[in-house]
Each structure stands twice: as structure tokens, then as C-alpha cells.
Amino acid sequence: MAQELTVGIAGLGAIGLHLARALDAGVQGLRLAAVSARDLKKAQANVGGFRQPPMVVSNPELAACDVVVEAAPAAAFEEIATAAIEAGRIFVPSSVGALLPRMHLVERARETGARIVVPTGALLGLDAVRAAAEGEVESVTIETRKPPRGLEGAPYLRQNAIDVLAITTPTRVFKGNAFDAAQGFPANVNVAAALALAGIGPERTMVEIWADPAQTRNQHTIRVEAAAARLTMTIENVPSEENPRTGRITPLSILACLRGLTSTLKVGS
């Protein structure tokens, strides 16, 4: 069996708490050692009934763990990421959009020996996109359709005075590249950021975001035109009850990513 890795989780919301419970239930080669959260008392209560309660620490202190998973509000991203990377740890971000304007962290990880492992999240087909990007790629686009409630509060909507809850028919609220999408919708389009990093970069990856009252799920459609293949893929994710901006599949994706760090057999590129 591979050497056991200790895991620290930043944030105990819709993603982090589900992941923490799964790790506490037992995952071969992984041990939940620490968690952090804005409300430390609430965090203590959330993990108090675990089989092996982890320590509740500050964000920087998570860097004592072998693996640091970021599942916190995007505003805390740099503090969490910097501490993990400076300590040479494996850093697994869920707020992938926050990484795009901070690519200096990738250079720093190269210097410290840290690794940044981006999980697939609420997306599909990243292996195929990565493979296609080894050759010539003409275009990559992603169209995201969400119930209006799942987009509420996005900075881009506030800046442009768009009342998304007043929308009654399918409405495109954004069209641009992945870099701008990640800035304008930091809690909504981590899928676009992951796609951009897997493929042709954030400037060339185009994004459309639709508010659709008829949608009950978060739908993402990827289209890739490449020399090796033409790809069209759609996934419809069930929104999290705790946070409709994210899907139920996201913590499961991170769990699968963590399993891959220690598993003897790893499927997929």
C-alpha cells in the first residue's frame, strides 16, 4: 500500500464538509488531519462527532498536512494556496477560477517542489481535451446554463445591474473568455477555468453563461474543434442543497482526485 497522506481541508461548506465526512469514513492511503473555517466553533461542532476528529486550525496551519484541499470562499484562496505551496505540499483547489489571475503560484510551486492538482470538478471530458491540446486546437467553448438562483450575487451581474431573479425566459448574461468569466462569476464558472487550463488557455477559451428559469440542474456543454477530434459533451449536475452555485458531484470529484494520489491503479490521463 502507498504511504499514508495526511489531508487538510480549508472550508466546511457544501464541498468541504461532504469531503471531510467521506475521508473520516475511511479512504485507503488518506487520513483527514486538519480543517479550517471562518467560524471555528461551528467547525468544531461539525467534526466533533467524527470517528477521528481532525484538528481545527487556521488556514495557513493546514500547510502542515501533505495535501491541502481548498474548498473555501474565493477571497481566502491566496492565503491558503500560498501557505501550501511555500511548504512544498500538494495543493488541490476547488476555486480553480481564482488560480487564473495568480499563475505566479504555479511558478512558485515549481521552485518549492509543490504540486497543484486541479480536480475535474463539475465538468466532464478533461482527459479528451488535454489529449486534443497535445495537437492543434482551433477552438474551445463552454456554454453554462443554470437556474437564476445559482447565479445570484455574481460580481458581473452586480456591476451591470442585472437582476437575475427577474429573468423569466432563457437569457444569456455573459459572453467572453474564461479569464473574464472567472473574474465576473468566481463562484460559478470554475468549470470554465479548469477547461481553460486543460486546453488552450483562458484567453482563447470562450464562455457563455445563461440564466434559464426552466433549468433545474447546472448544465455545461463543451465544444472542441481540434485536428485530432471534434468533441461535443454535455453534463447536467444536480445543484447542492447547501449552495446552488455548486453541484453535488464536485466533492465526489475531489474525493476521486485524492484517491488517485495514492491508488495503485489510476485510470485516465
Question: Can you give a write-up of this model?
Answer:
30% of the residues lie in helices and 25% in strands. Helix 1 packs across helix 9, helix 3 packs parallel to helix 4 and helix 7 packs antiparallel against helix 8. The protein starts with a strand and ends in a 7-residue tail after the last helix. The mean pLDDT is 94.
Please supply descriptive tags for the structure shown above.
single chain; 269 residues; alpha/beta; Rossmann fold; Dihydrodipicolinate Reductase, domain 2; six-stranded parallel sheet; five-stranded mixed sheet; 11 strands; 30% helix; globular; Asp_DH_prok; NAD binding; pyridine nucleotide biosynthesis; aspartate dehydrogenase [NAD(P)+] activity
Percent helix, as a range, is: 25-40%
CATH architecture classification name of the largest domain: 3-Layer(aba) Sandwich
Reported for the largest beta sheet, the result is: 6 strands, parallel
Shape descriptor? globular
Overall CATH class of the largest domain = Alpha Beta
InterPro entries: Asp/hSer_DH_NAD-bd, Asp_DH, Asp_DH_prok, L-Asp_DH, NAD(P)-bd_dom_sf
Active site: 220
EC number: 1.4.1.21
Enzyme class: oxidoreductase
